[in-house]
Amino acid sequence: MFFEHNLQDELLVAEVMAAELNDYFYRGELFHQVVVHTPHGELMPKMTLGGLWERLLDLRDHWTQLSPGEKRRWQVVEHAFSEAWAYHKEQAEVLLRREFESYLHSWRWYMEDLIDAPYRAGKNYAAEVHNRQRLTLLGKLATDHGIDLSAGQKAVDALDNQLRQLWRPGKYIGRADEAQYHNPVEEWYLFGRPAEDRSSEK
After folding, report:
1. What is the pLDDT at residue 202?
2. Which residues are CB-neighbours of 53 under 8 A, at least 6 positions away?
3. pLDDT at position 196, please?
4. 158: exposed, middle or buried (C-beta count within 10 Å: 0-12, 13-18, 19+)?
5. How far apart are CA 190 and CA 18, in angstroms?
6. How far is it, in rounded angstroms, from Cα 106 to Cα 101?
7. Which residue intervals of the chain are DSSP H helices?
8. Which residue ranges in the chain fall short of pLDDT 70?
9. Where are the domains of the chain?
10. What is the predicted pLDDT for the residue at 197?
11. Which of 63, 105, 168, 193 has the greatest CB tally within 10 Å of its CB?
12. Is residue 162 within 8 Å of residue 111, measured between CB atoms?
């Protein structure tokens, strides 16, 4: 849903990020700029642990569309991610917590705007909701590695309760062919939109 480039480019991005993992941990910067040369041009995504993991999950969702060689490359990247995490365990936890807080801050800021001006802010929902999806992904990644994010999750739950007050269930907000990769119960915030009540605008 959220990657504009094709799967082959996505795999190239994941490989470059994996190659820079050790440097990423040593630098300690949350967002690390990488440059990826693809057949379709140069990409310059910001690298985070969640960003790399998100690409691996997205490629796994599209597993049947990958060639045997691409599947082996995916396995190499996934192994590199696991090995680097194990070696830099303490730093990985620090960076994961910082990433979670960063996206929580962005999502909280957007929710404040949405509650204050639902008609105006609601028009940007499809772009902003990626931050909410990232929080789910990071929460699962934390659980997988025994990291307690319960305090942050309570904040996410509180924001979810606010969003539900405005919520109108509906179709998946991304491309129709991508809906199958998302759980409408767990990721309910991707299936519908907040109400855009112009009368409540200030």
Report:
1. 46
2. 81, 137, 141
3. 77
4. exposed
5. 29
6. 9
7. 7-19, 21-27, 49-61, 68-87, 89-116, 118-122, 125-144, 150-166
8. 1-5, 197-202
9. 7-87, 91-200
10. 66
11. 193
12. yes
Q: Please give the pLDDT value at position 59.
A: 96
Q: Tokens representing 199?
A: 């009368």
Record the tokens describing residue 32, joined without a space: 């690390």
The amino acid that residue 42 corresponds to is E
- Using CA atoms, how far apart are residues 126 and 138, in angstroms rounded to an integer? 19
Which whole-number Å values give the CA distances from 67 to 43, 54, 135, 152, in the listed order? 22, 20, 31, 39
Which residues, 6+ apart, have CB-to-CB distance to 85 below 8 Å?
49, 92, 145
Sort residue 183 into left (φ over 0), alpha (ψ -120 to 50) or beta: beta
The structure's pTM equals: 0.92
Grouping H, G, I as helix, E, B as strand and the rest as coil, residue 194 is: strand
Both tokens assigned to 73: 């490359």
DSSP secondary-structure letter at 145? T
